[in-house]
Amino acid sequence: MFDIIAVDISGRHKLHEEYLMVCAAVAASVTADHIEKVKQITIRTFRSKEAPDVHDVVKMVENTVSALKFKGTIVTESGDMYNKPQWVIDSMFFQDFKYQESMGERRCMEIAHHVSLGARKLLLKELEIH
Amino acid sequence: MKSAILVKRNEPREEDKRNQNQMSELRELAEAAGYEVLGELTQTRYPDRKFHLGRGKLDELAQIVADLVPDKVIFYNPLTTMQIYNISETCRCETIDKFQLILEIFATRATTHRSKLQVELARLEYELPRARAVISLLKKDERPGFMGLGGYEDSYAQDVKNRMIRIRKELETIKKDNESLRILRHSRGFSLLALAGYTNAGKSTLFNSLVDEEVTARDMLFTTLLPTTRSLNVGGRRVLLTDTVGFIEDLPHWMVDAFRSTLEEIFLADIVLLVVDASEPLETIRNKLLVCHQTMWDQMQDVSIVTVFNKKDLVCEEELHMKIQELSYLAPEPVAVSARNMDGFDELKSRIDNMLPVWERVSLSIPMSEEGMSLLAWIFDEGLVHSVDYGDNISVDFEAREKIISKAISMVEKLS
Fold it and tell me: Phi and psi for B41 in degrees, rounded to 5?
């Protein structure tokens, strides 16, 4: 079993002249082909006038992950990090980092994706931003 | 024999080893399609919109083509219609990319009606977004209709769409037949096993050794295109093992869709045996496992996976152990076997046995009559009988699926 933290960010596109982003981090124990246990989920919101670059994304991910009680390797989709090589991104993080590989990691990423997307939709609805 | 020149554009800052592996894979694909490779050309740069390679490199390619006169130029990278047109015009030679090459292999190996339909569908899916551009290039000077106001492009694209709908419908019918066959097999007490893995991992060789069959197995990519199913005895239980088509890197989404009915054998199995070639370098195995995970993860639900490290006779014990250890995060339930020497099969079978859907064990007393005897014969067919005692009644102790047991109990009640 491996402890991972799957992270996904929704809303990286301009809406009313700003970027309204939601970052979700899922701490879980996974095996190669399935999720053993989801231990904790945290959500953070971020607003920015400028499009986020790699450094901003790394900061957002670290900020969200710091709210978790559990440790693990941070896992993201390579597209979230602008398809930069893994070693480049790894050197920017304080924790271990890797791109999604196994089925278990991909399923966990799927959860993070649904959480961040659902939370963002709910926020936009509550704040009446269309 | 047909001949070809292979061309690959390397991404800047990509690892050399990876580039070499991709080129050798293209070479193997070309050989599998029956091409003699006359030469290879690579360039490291970002893609050019018009020619994909740089203008100077393309002139070099044109010179090589003029000297060696190959039948085709094969690109590793996906090309747009305009790029294909421009390269063909400059080199005066037919140009295709990797996906067209894979389609060509599939087309030559397709023997049954189903596989022919699948190849045709994949070809049309590939062609559709390009159809408009191809037709407008071909019919540049011609305009049909009154005062030349019409267009060939739409009608051709519509034609392609119609053909795709027709083929999909026909494949749907075949799929239904296969589905009902699968349900029948399940209800008859069979558990389904599927072999999956990267192309040329040795799936067919393993299949042949496990079920003692003579399916064509060769050291060539995409030897198997149609799933073959045979029964296998695992700890007294009959399971059905299916040999399937292999995966390949960057297999586009439309191709997975076209071959969906073939891949469904994997997605709907009870256990998947994920075969990898243990004799390859660690990084290659890792990349191939990644491709397998990428292709399967979205489609599979509640399927157990056993990773079979095949060709263990070609690596030493220590190296094999190290590879299994390093890849543990990608390779669930690892078992090392040698399909050629039939080594490690006992462990593989016991691992499969542990993961098969649970059978229950019951003892029944069946009345001694003609109907009772036929019920006993049916139990022998569907389950695993541990003991039978013929007295006034027939006492039978057996293991079977829950469905079979409840059916047997209700039949006994009816008889007595």
Answer: -140, 135
CATH of the domain at A97: 3.30.420.10
Contact call for A32 and B305, based on CB within 8 A:
yes
Q: What is the ipTM of this complex?
A: 0.83
Q: Which residue has the tokens 């998947």?
A: B272
* Residue B210 and residue B178 share a domain: no
B217, B313: one domain: yes
- CATH code, domain with B79: 3.40.50.11060
CB pairs under 8 A between A and B: 30
Give the pLDDT confidence score for residue A45 in this predicted structure. Answer: 94
- A102: chain B residues, CB-CB within 8 Å: 293, 329-330
DSSP state of B198: B
Q: Is there a single domain that holds both residue B310 and residue B204?
A: yes
> Number of structural domains, chain B?
4
DSSP string, B223-291: ---S-EEEEEEETTEEEEEEE-PPB-TT--HHHHHHTHHHHHHHHT-SEEEEEEETTS-HHHHHHHHHH
Bridge partners, B384 (sequence order): B399
CA distance B202 to B217: 8
* Mean per-residue pLDDT pooled into runs of 10, chain B (416 residues): 90 83 87 88 90 91 91 90 87 88 81 79 80 71 63 74 87 75 66 84 85 69 73 81 80 66 74 90 88 81 85 89 90 89 87 83 87 87 83 85 84 83
- Residues in B closer than 8 angstroms to A2, CB to CB, are 329
Q: Are residues B264 and B394 in the same domain?
A: no
Q: What is the 3-state secondary structure (H, E, C) of chain A?
A: CEEEEEEEEECCCEECCEEEEEEEEEEEEECCCCEEEEEEEEEEEEEECCCCCHHHHHHHHHHHHCCCCCCCEEEECHHHHCCCCHHHHHCCCCCCEEECCCHHHHHHHHHHHHHHHHHHHHHHHHCCCC
Task: Provide CB contacts within 8 A for B20, sequence distance 6+.
Answer: none
What gap in Å lies between CA B50 and CA B45, rounded to an integer? 14
Range of the structural domain that residue A119 is part of = 2-126
Whether B197 and B271 map to the same domain: the answer is: yes
> Which amino acid is it at B72?
K
> How many Å apart are CA A113 and CA A30, to the nearest integer?
17
Search chain B and give the residue with CA nearest A30. B329
What are the tokens at B360? 């229950």
What CATH number is attached to the domain comprising B400?
3.30.1370
Range(s) of the domain holding residue B117 = 111-142+149-188
B131 and B83 in a common domain: no
B46 lies within 8 A of chain A by CB: no
What is the sign, positive or negative, of the torsion defined by CA atoms of A113, A119, A123, A124? positive
Are B222 and B371 members of one domain? Answer: no
Number of domains chain A is built from? 1
Distance in angstroms (rounded) separating the CA atoms of residues A59 and A54 = 9
**Which chain B residues are Cβ-neighbours of A32 within 8 angstroms?**
305, 307, 328-332
